[in-house]
Structures are given as structure tokens and as C-alpha cells.
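Input record, target 12 of the design panel.
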């Protein structure tokens, strides 16, 4: 490797490390206030729109099947999140850009949505897999009419 290329590679490595170190020193972003439910996986606090970390919930107009009959499972999931969080004090800690763990009444909203069967754990939500298994086994929410 030529000396200039080697030097540039070393500088890029050091820059990356210093950026990582600076990121480690940053304090987490915390958003607190009254929650407004937008859909089954999204809340708003003041002007901040926050996706619940680690879950996938049905969209507002998504339909599911009960046997051969369609029903609005997205609306039912939103209603459940409204019962948990709407117009209540929430504390959200950013995990990724626009994704946060949100707590209302000492309960993790993502975990509650998965445990009740109204959302599933996504690839980042490994901590919610046991709750998903309980919801599936108990045939709660979206799992109500899924065959074994």
C-alpha cells in the first residue's frame, strides 16, 4: 500500500473511532410529555413523532381474516394503544433515529402491544420475542384466529 493511501486509511479509522467515542459520550435523547396515539405503532409527544422501538404493528386500515371474514385489525390495534397511552404522560428514550422505548404507567408500550397480541417483535426487538410467544399461545389480539 502506498504511504498516502495508508495514511488516509489510518485517518479514516481514527476519525471513525473518535466519532464512536463522541457518540458514546452523548446523553440519550429523552422526550417526555402527554402522548397522542397516531397509529398502533406510533405516538406523538408535542411535535415529536415517535415509532415504538422493536415492533411492527398493523397499519390503520389493515385488514385481517377471522376465518373467511375480514376485519379491521389495524383499527383494533390502534384502539388498544390508545387505551394504554393516549393522553397519558409518557417518557420515551431514543434507541434509533425516530424509534424509542416509551414508558407509560411504568410499562414498556412496545412490550405491552406485543404481549396483548396487537404487534409483533421486529428484527431489533429480540427482547419482545417471549411476549410474542405468550400472545400467540394465548391467542390474543392478532393471534386470535390463527390456526395452531
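The sequence produced for target 12 reads:
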Amino acid at each position: 500500500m502506498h504511504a498516502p493511501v495508508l495514511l488516509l486509511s489510518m485517518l479514516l479509522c481514527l476519525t471513525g473511532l473518535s466519532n464512536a467515542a463522541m457518540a458514546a459520550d452523548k446523553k440519550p435523547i429523552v422526550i417526555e410529555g402527554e402522548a397522542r396515539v397516531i397509529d398502533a405503532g406510533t405516538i406523538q409527544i408535542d411535535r415529536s413523532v415517535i415509532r415504538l422501538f422493536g415492533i411492527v404493528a398493523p397499519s390503520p386500515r389493515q385488514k385481517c381474516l377471522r376465518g373467511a371474514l375480514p376485519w379491521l385489525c389495524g383499527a383494533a390495534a390502534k384502539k388498544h394503544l390508545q387505551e394504554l397511552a393516549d393522553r397519558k404522560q409518557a417518557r420515551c428514550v431514543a434507541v434509533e433515529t425516530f424509534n424509542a422505548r416509551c414508558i407509560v404507567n411504568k410499562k414498556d408500550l412496545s412490550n405491552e402491544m406485543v404481549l396483548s397480541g396487537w404487534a409483533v417483535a421486529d428484527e431489533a426487538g429480540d427482547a419482545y420475542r417471549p411476549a410474542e410467544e405468550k400472545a400467540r399461545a394465548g391467542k390474543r389480539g392478532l393471534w386470535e384466529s390463527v390456526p395452531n
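The chain has four helices and ten strands.
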